[in-house]
Amino acid sequence: MSTHRLTAPAPGWTATTDVVVVGSGVAGLTVALNVRKAGLRVMVVTKAMLDDGSTRWAQGGVAAALGEGDTPEQHLDDTLVAGAGLCDEEAVRTLVTEGPDAVRRLIATGALFDRGEDGEILLTREGGHHRDRIVHAGGDATGAEISRALVAAVHTDPGIELIEHALVLDLLTDAVGHAAGLTLHVMGEGRRDGVGAVRARAVVLATGGMGQVFSATTNPAVSTGDGVALALRAGAAVTDLEFVQFHPTVLWLGPEAEGQQPLVSEAVRGEGAHLVDADGVRFMVGQHELAELAPRDIVAKAITRRMQEQGAEHMFLDGRHFGAEMWEHRFPTILASCRAHGIDPVTEPIPVAPAAHYASGGVRTDPHGRTSVPGLYACGEVACTGVHGANRLASNSLLEGLVFAERIAADLTGRHRAGELPERTVDVEAARSAHPVPLPPSEARAEIQRLMSHGAGVLRSAASMADAAAGLGLIAEQGYAHAAEEKPADPRVETWEAANLLLVATALVAAAAQRAETRGCHWREDFPERDDAHWRRHLITTLAATGGPVSTPEEQ
Ligand SMILES: Cc1cc2nc3c(=O)[nH]c(=O)nc-3n(C[C@H](O)[C@H](O)[C@H](O)COP(=O)(O)OP(=O)(O)OC[C@H]3O[C@@H](n4cnc5c(N)ncnc54)[C@H](O)[C@@H]3O)c2cc1C
Fold first, then answer.
1. What's the predicted TM-score (pTM) here?
2. What distance in angstroms lies between residue 148's CA and the mean position of ligand 1's atoms?
3. Are 220 and 57 in contact (CB under 8 A)?
4. Which residue, by CA, sits nearest to atom 13 of ligand 1?
5. Handedness of CA 419, 421, 426, 430 (dihedral sign)
6. Among 420, 366, 380, 409, which residue's Cα sits nearest to residue 19?
7. pLDDT at 1
8. How far is residue 392's CA from residue 538's CA, in Å, rounded to a whole number?
9. What is the DSSP letter of 381?
10. Residue 239 bridge partners (DSSP)
């Protein structure tokens, strides 16, 4: 039963469905399409427009062992290396063995991937992969094509109800603590407007990432960690939050740039572009056998280190030797976005710096996507299935969204057929009695982002994280003080998002401060070594009765 909920008006309207899916990226839409095959009614609720999540922005592609000579076992090996000792090997095995067919089913759904003149699917390579195994579309517009195909497919199924501009607030449970629906705020007109409730037999969170917790990120504005915050308030366990992947090569737009920044995909390095420092020296050579194609954490750390050594704000990615034709055909999106910012990669190196990119952790799930709250599932970037460990291997995330969405749908279908998915009665009394979390003002968003980028960014230390924790604590206290003085912030999208960002940031810093080692994408200046004896285990975060997150190391 939720002990905490966001401050919000009581629901003014109610709707009913069988399965409610929150989010319309690769994970949410794949769950919806597959659950429908069992004849269950599905409602997809999504914060903005259907294609507004990270999925649309994915450039590089989807990793799957489809090439000649490649095998799931080799894909598994590369994934385990990137995960730095914290992957759940069984989850990875599931990902890599079910992955190739999941990609084929996505093609059958309508996604058009790039093919050679012989009609065969073209495969490229990205950091950490020892084989060409990345399927791509439109050159560097893979996510846009996947999103287009899935959105088109859900539109053709009248059994899938789609509600856009619907910000989900909190989980509803029944008297035995089984998920029974959710509360949400719809920016609509007419019958479903304002705060309402959706009753359902099961709830699937597919809310994507939390990149907006940091000042500079590749994630779109909707990636505010809402699913993780909701799950924490609902009593679910969350894990591996400290493992945030910073993408090494994000277009550097100046010291004041904030919010979503354009990505320069790893595939550009995969095709042979070089990282060079302020003096034009290729600094990745000799640092790792794969040089520029080393796993992302290694490249992000090397860039950060060289930036510090040279007192530079960015490094450069040099792809001038590709020539105009290759840039135009292979990387049209990146070329256009660089040119839109006054940089021409055909004639000049691209200024790049690391930015928050991917949440390897999230709501803890079992191999069927079930969370620790019965009837609550999590899928895609919001989930932690265990496949990424301490660092995600490039292009494994779209694949994870596909594979585990199919598994969630299979689990729901099986339970439905076995009569284990009855209608639920929402315990409204319990829902309203949960402690309302005071909302920070909407301006808190920028302050949270600033604190996180300074204190818990690529390079962390006990001191930097103590500063971040103190600042975040102050924002929370101000929220409580204003609520006590009866001057609370208005409940609205901006303040609900700020409350979610605050909770997720606080939980992330608490976990990162506790992990006294350097592993994967968690880099501690004060603990530079990996410490398997103490830390080859996960930190599980839950919400204490006081409303603060508590991280506990898993038993070894
Ligand atoms: C620039 C960029 C490039 C990338 N490139 C690649 C790549 O090449 N290969 C790869 O594998 N991965 C890549 N990734 C990562 C990958 O795109 C994401 O991990 C993946 O798309 C996540 O899918 P998802 O369905 O979990 O979430 P998303 O696609 O982010 O969708 C989340 C959905 O949830 C909705 N939502 C969020 N909160 C709420 C709420 N409170 N109420 C209602 N709805 C809500 C959002 O509006 C959105 O519809 C990239 C990511 C970025 C940002």
1. 0.95
2. 14
3. yes
4. 58
5. positive
6. 409
7. 55
8. 15
9. G
10. 362, 540
Residue 17 is classified by DSSP as -
Kindly give the number of the ligand 1 atom that is closest to the alpha carbon of 50.
49
Beta bridge partners, 275, equal 317
Q: What is the pLDDT of residue 340?
A: 96
178-508-293 Cα angle (round to 5)? 110
What is the Cα–Cα distance from 265 to 263, expressed in whole angstroms? 6
- Alpha-carbon distances, residue 115 vs 153, 229, 291, 332 (angstroms): 22, 41, 28, 16
CA of 55 to the centre of ligand 1 (A): 4
Edge to edge, the sheet with strand 14-16 lists 14-16, 194-199, 179-186, 166-173
| pLDDT score of 13 | 93
Are 390 and 520 in contact by the 8 Å Cβ rule? The answer is yes
- Complete DSSP assignment for 178-197: -EEEEEEEE--SSSS-EEEE
Residue 37: how many other CB atoms lie within 10 Å: 12
Q: Is 459 helix (H, G, I), strand (E, B) or coil?
A: strand
**479 — pLDDT class (breaks 50, 70, 90):** confident
Amino acid identity, position 524: R
Cβ–Cβ < 8 Å for 229, 548: no
Nearest to 33 by CA among 369, 400, 419, 412: 412
Find where tokens 């399965």 sit: 19
Please tell me the distance between residue 35's alpha carbon and the centre of ligand 1 in angstroms: 20
Which of 31, 49, 55 has the most ligand 1 atoms within 8 A of CB, as the residue to mutate? 55
Q: Is 25 in the pocket of ligand 1 (CB under 6 A)?
A: yes
For the Cβ of 248 lying below 6 angstroms from any atom of ligand 1, the answer is: no
Which atom of ligand 1 approaches the CA of 217 most closely?
Answer: 53
58 pocket-lining for ligand 1 (C-beta < 6 Å): yes
Atom from ligand 1 closest to the CA of residue 381: 26
Closest ligand 1 atom, CA of 500? 41
Report the share of the chain in percent with pLDDT over 90. 86
Residue 500 CB–ligand 1 contact under 6 Å: no
Report whether residue 263 contacts ligand 1, using a CB cutoff of 6 Å.
yes
**Pocket flag, ligand 1, residue 167 (CB < 6 Å):** yes
Bridge partners of 264? none
Distance 208 CA to ligand 1 centre (A): 4
- pLDDT, position 2: 65
* Residue 532 pLDDT > 90: yes
Q: Which residues are catalytic?
A: 296
Ligand 1 centroid–CA 411 distance in Å is 23
Q: Does the beta carbon of 52 sit less than 6 angstroms from any atom of ligand 1?
A: yes
